[in-house]
Specification:
It contains six helices and 14 strands. The protein is α/β, with parallel strands linked by helices and 287 residues long. The protein has a single domain, classed as Purple Acid Phosphatase, chain A, domain 2 (4-Layer Sandwich), CATH 3.60.21.10. The strands form two sheets. It has an eight-stranded mixed sheet, with no helix packed on it. Strands 4-3-2-12-13-14 form a six-stranded mixed sheet. Strand 2, helix 2 and strand 3 form a beta-alpha-beta unit. The protein is globular and about 45 Å long. It starts with a strand and ends with a strand. The N terminus is likely disordered.
């Protein structure tokens, strides 16, 4: 049975324009855990993306099920989210690596996935820096990916920063992972605003937190949106009570996360396939 659990303030009664960033410079839309030939939910989330034609599209890993094979990319992902290929900036997930090296993922996205075949890269959009990272390879302090991120953060500072990777550090299910803890500390020390994740088949928004997962008004806000089409987590995957920093969580809906970015602020909306706005809000970038 699916369950919906909401914690904290839920702003679904606020008109969308009231919670969007002022002077929007760019729009991002996406989700993780997306395509499968066994369900039509990925087509429904693709239809949501189509309603935002000027947005850059992100994916949060586990882009195609079950094993990330070339046939699955051609037959399951391409007919749905493949319609946005030219405006998509992806990241890989564990199912994309079920082939061993995720080669079909890198073949499908080509240069859009960054230098082959490391699975991490960065780009700028609307004055923001986005770090697309790879939680499925080496991420510790001795890794090439860690060294790359540390150098980027030290030499290319930005007022507003987002990081995206597949497996979340914090989750009110039993499937959070500490693998990206060192990366999170780097981002926290450089005052990043947002971390976006998939992997958990549901939606959860955290309050800003420090790398230990404690509330911190100057910390990083994490949003998990593994809602692109794969079936929701079972009810017994959800911990009760939720983490102290959990503000909103739901495993009822498939949908997409929309981010409106401005020079110094941002807003979010979780848009469900039934037409509802499950969550929305806004915040400012760190000084």
């Amino acid at each position: 049975m699916k369950v919906a659990v909401v914690v904290g303030l839920l702003l679904i009664l606020v008109a969308p324009q009231a919670v969007r960033a002022h002077d929007v410079t760019a729009v991002l839309v996406g989700a993780g855990d997306i395509a499968s030939c066994s369900t039509d939910e990925d087509e429904l989330t693709a239809q949501l993306v189509e309603t935002i034609p000027d947005a850059a599209v992100f994916t949060l890993g586990d882009n195609v099920y079950v094993d990330g094979t070339a046939d699955e990319w051609a037959n399951c992902y391409d007919p749905t989210w493949g319609r946005f290929l030219d405006r998509t900036r992806p990241i890989p997930g564990n199912h994309d690596y079920n082939t061993g090296t995720a080669q079909p993922y890198f073949d499908y996205f080509g240069a859009l996935a960054g230098p082959c075949c490391r699975g991490y890269y960065s780009y700028d959009i609307g004055g923001w820096r986005v770090y697309a990272l790879n939680s499925e390879t080496q991420t510790g302090r001795a890794s090439a990916q860690y060294a790359w991120l540390r150098k980027k953060l030290n030499t290319e500072p930005h007022t507003c920063t987002i990081a995206m990777w597949h497996k979340p550090l914090w989750s009110s299910t039993r499937r959070g992972t500490t693998k990206m803890a060192a990366m999170t500390t780097l981002l926290y020390n450089k005052h990043a605003e947002l971390i976006l994740n998939g992997h958990i088949h549901g939606y959860e928004r955290m309050a800003p937190a420090n790398p230990s997962g404690q509330p911190d008004p100057l910390g990083i806000r994490q949003i998990t949106a593994g809602t692109g089409g794969r079936q929701a987590e079972n009810a017994d995957q959800w911990i009760n009570p939720p983490l102290a920093i959990s503000e909103v969580r739901d495993n009822t809906y498939s949908g997409v996360l929309r981010l409106d970015l401005s020079a110094t602020s941002y807003s979010w909306q979780f848009l469900a396939t039934d037409g509802s706005t499950v969550d929305s809000g806004a915040d400012v970038c760190h000084p």
